[in-house]
Amino acid sequence: MKPIFLPGDKKAIAFLIAIIVLAIVAFRLLGDDGTVAAVDIPADSTAVSKPQHYRRYQPKQYIYNEGTREAELFDFDPNTADSTQLLRLGLQPFQVKSIYKYRAHGGVYRTASDFARLYGLTKKQFKALEPYIKISDDYRPAAELVEKEAPAPRDTVMYPIKLQENEHISLNSADTTTLRKVPGIGRYYAREIDRHRQLLGGFVSTEQLMEIDGMPEEALTYFTVDVANVKKMNLNRLTINQLKRHPYINFYQARAICDYRRLRGPLKSLDDLRLMKEFTDDDLRRLEPYVEF
Q: Across the chain, how many H-helices and E-strands are there?
């Protein structure tokens, strides 16, 4: 009769039995969920030594006993205070770290209000710390050491001081610099006023300023008019080119005056011009202050 198990089969069976025994032992040592089996630990946990493999994978924890720490109040400079002083003041470790990081990047606390921006600092805490914040003069802005220079005197030619509401200037005698003192009158309008004044021979009314394109009407109240020095033109002596230079006489009117003189002799009054179709009553009214015969 042949044997049931061959020699090689016996070795295989022995190996399987060993595997089964080891599995049973491991199952007893481990819980159902594969974790370390619970071990009863007395109230004083220091009385039992934890297994080496348990301590190896236990995460490191940092516990701050914040509840028992009492804040101390004393004078400090947030620019120079070290971590020990800051913690004694009742600040949290993350706040101390934030202060160090701020200073490392060149940050400077120049006023107590700068310290109020500290992350996590409550209004109550800041009010308690504020009287004790003493910032050294070494951290004040360097610009404070430089004496402020007196402002340069104003260039009244380039930037004239404007007139007050109760102040006035003479429209016919003021130069362009004086004209620019009038509110609303700048360099451009000052030149235009002077140019129009020369062409007219002088102003007889402030309303004539409105003949300048874009002239601000509110500027008229700052002028007075002296008609004593208004220049008049003799209609019997001027040529056609000289006559048409006046703002109130055009080419056709100047030619009509010269034709009248050539055909009828010198003009004696404005009534002689009324006979000409080139002149209207409004034209003669505007010309009257500027003509002589």
A: 12, 4
